[in-house]
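Notes from the pairing session

We agreed to fold both candidates in a single pass and log them together. This is the raw record for the first candidate, unedited. Please don't reformat it; downstream parsing expects exactly this layout.

Candidate A
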Amino acid sequence: MSNHGTNQYTTEFRHEFEADTASLFSRRLARFTMVWGLVGVVAFVMRFGGAVIERRFFPERDLWFLGTPAAWTGGQWTTMLLAGALVLALYGAVWAVVRNVRIPRTRLTDISVGLVVAEGLIGLMAWTLVPTSSPLAPVAMTHFAAALFLPWNLWQAIRPMLVLLGANALFTLLFAPHGEAETWVSLALSPALGIPGAVVAWLKHSRRIEAYKLKALARRYGEFRRELLDARKIHESLFPQAITDGPICFWYEYEPMRSIGGDFVFAHCPKEFGGRKMSVVLVDVTGHGIPAALTVNRLHGELERVFAENPLAPPGDVLELLNRYIHLTLAKHSIYATALCVRIDCDSDTLEYASGGHPPAFVRAVDGTVHEIESTAFVLGVCPHPEFQAEPRSLRFGPGDALIAYTDGAMEARDDRGRMLGVCGMRSLVATAQSPLGMMSRRTLSNRVIEHRCGIWTRGILEAVEHHRSGVADDDTLVVEITRPLGVETAAVPAGGREVPRADG
């Protein structure tokens, strides 16, 4: 992935994470203020209700379990009462605002930090009138609870305690009795009060980021899979339809290494010739997956243009035009291709071909002999147009003959010892396979039999390749079969009509 793509993905993730955090922060802050406010109400009632019980019924005893220091004077009780009421009012106000007003996430963070700081400052001011051993102890509990509730990161958790520790030091210097060592020990240990909340916030934030990354990756993967399925449908729509009847039968089997790949076959059969002439181009682009499929899309458009301009374009011309296109547009990106171009003419019983670095194809004659179609030129895109020579050739291709072509994924299949099937292995498969059409009796040949039998070459070869291969495929595999059925001719085509195959004999 390029830096631009990585940065874009990182930016999108950050924006999505911040948006999710804003929504989560709003809900959690409202929940925290409500729950912790209720806890404060209960504590408020217990403390001051306990003080009333103690003073009314047990004036001579200090009931420590009620949390009400007997030494407090009326003014000190009033101070603590006002401080507690002010904190509860603050929590109630924040809860009402967060529930009813849409606030940006940065503001929500400031509000949560400010709430903890405000509670701590109120406690410090009350401490100046009602000294306690640790004025920050109550707010440390609030800080820990906030870290449990709120989606703080480490810095957001540290911020309120830094402010309160500074304020605590200032208040201690100004108002603490200088002769009490306990006060200074408490001041020295006060930074430890913020550690639990900071640790909790850091752990929660780290785990939340990892969980969100997994969630985002799962969502992205789902989107990618759906897009890939759509891309596969579009990619497969470029492949030609099989032809199972008529003077020329055409069939192929394609197994991409991934969902889509870089192997492709293009077939052109002009209707004006009654299906007796056909051009087929088999292409194998370097690479795999989506990049190779995108290249195939471009080559398909170029082939459409070539045959739209000349429906009977010779294989040599097609190969040279493809080489020129790839050299000018794709080779600069280190993208090349091999291709086999063939043109079959039933009127002259010939097969003309040109091959640019493609694996050898085979023509199996009706008598069982096998002829090899070797490469006639370099890999496409390597040489500029003036230096590229297609060197087309031709051979006889009569009724009962079959052409078997494939991409390198078939012959490069390796067994458990690492041995490739190779060209010799492919030739052996073609030579030893039972002919699906050539060995039939002319009397029993029919259109239904042809349609049922078409594709048996490709299926048999793919099964043999899979049997030879050990493990998963490491390349795309495409096998193409072109046959001339025995005894099939084509009747005259009416104007605007479709050719009607028939069987002789």
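Candidate B (folded immediately after A)
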Amino acid sequence: MEELKLSVWLVLTPNVLLLDYAGPAETLRMARDMGAALVLHSCAPQPSVATSLGPSLGGLEPLPETLPPHSLVLVVGNSNDAKDYATPAARQVVRWLRTAPRADTRLASICSGALLLAQAGWLAGRHCTTHHSLLEMLQAMEPSAAVADDRIFVDDGRVLTSAGISTGIDLALYIVEQHAGPELASRVARRLVMYQRRGPLDPQTSPWLAWRNHMHPAVHRAQDAIARDPARLWTLAALAKAAHVSPRHLSRLFAQHAGIGVLAYQQQLRIARAKELLAALPPRTVEQVAEQCGFASARDFRRVWQRFAEGSPGDGRRATRPTSAVPRQSKSRGVEFIQSEEANGSLYKKVRQIG
């Protein structure tokens, strides 16, 4: 059965910030060339747009009248949002964003692109973020949004927003991982020489891409094999065969270049996969997750969890359930902060100017 293709529409406006566009676009292009089922489009309200560096980008597609099924609209940021987003071209993009997305269309933004999503009404009541210099502007533009000021990017289901500039690459890698899996995302990150990818809920390194800040091909081959099937009972001999070295040599290389033992590395990936399964629907029991992640028993799963993660697997299941936490309010320096602890334990901060 052919893999469902994701159509990605990178939306540009005049004076686009070039790295906001080039970083995610190249990440997605590399993923496509490595086998991800992606179809890439660069579109704008006009055939060419000026960039923040001066030279123009030409050959752009028009904004599509109708988006195909299974599309992702990725709105790219600009270098001077106050001036650039007052132009007729930017207003045309806002009008298009209000009407073009289908029921199955996802939306995303890089940097100040979140302001265009807000103007189109897509951030109402959602968790989101943008560049740190634009947080208060975004909050004023959409008062009902929960604007996170300490996140690289935020995944609110249908809408994803990033903090901007280099974090657009983090968001693009996350999209690749969601669509094509962590193993391919790790290969793209390695090609970008960006091993320590940042995640949506905290600034910590993703376990799928940690311990890969090295250039040794044999160790990477072994890590790729584990990432493709972390639940498999990998023997050192089987991994060494995949890496084209002897078992003893692989063990030494792994510790020297990755900075972690082979078994500990596999257990970290199993725990990362377990967290994904505990958060997914339909709900699974701890015993089911343990079996699907390759642990000998639920007891063994809990023992490894205590070594590499906080709390217990049961906490991981409860953290995915909705809560009715009462927001807490405080005031400081003319800005009102409304903090609300979400079901996943993250603390989001709404910022609203007073007066």
